[in-house]
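Annotated sample (chain length 175).
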Amino acid sequence: MNVLDAIKNRREITNFKDEPIQSDLLEAIVDAAYLAPSGNNLPSKDIIVVTEKEKLQVLAKTTPFMKWLEQAPAAIVITGRPDVSKYWLQDASIAAAFAWLETVEADIGAAFGAVYHAQDQQESEKRESHVKQNLDIPNDRKVVAVLGLGYPDQEPKPKKYLPKDELVHYNQFQS
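Output written by the structure step:
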């Protein structure tokens, strides 16, 4: 599958089959996150792979919007390191996107659980602390997201997008 097809076929999967992910497929997803580019090629992200059911159930309590993680057979937690690079948030976000595209290639479903909250420091601290405490993540890391992974138990319909001409501008912004 080419990359544009993977982007078009990507869905938010929140219902998973009760089936472990093949280790080679899980490792390919991890590799996609690991190989994602980073600003100035600095090591500003960490990737934590979680497959223990008890830990997944605890991570599902990070926010009220991540209950689907209880069903997931695996998750990837992506952190950023502000002490290493001013681009830590972009680096971690790109790693999550690359991992998600690899899930599409591998016929695995993924859901994005946002942890870092740029507009609400208190909420972000609450979410991040929960994940850090339960996965022994050092305090110098910012927990950006948790990607829940598993074989899809359903195929959601594509989301409707705004018209392309409302969002894409050529050579200059046009209103």
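Annotation: The domain at 10-167 is CATH 3.40.109.10 (NADH Oxidase).
Annotation: The CA atoms of residues 169 and 175 lie 9 Å apart.
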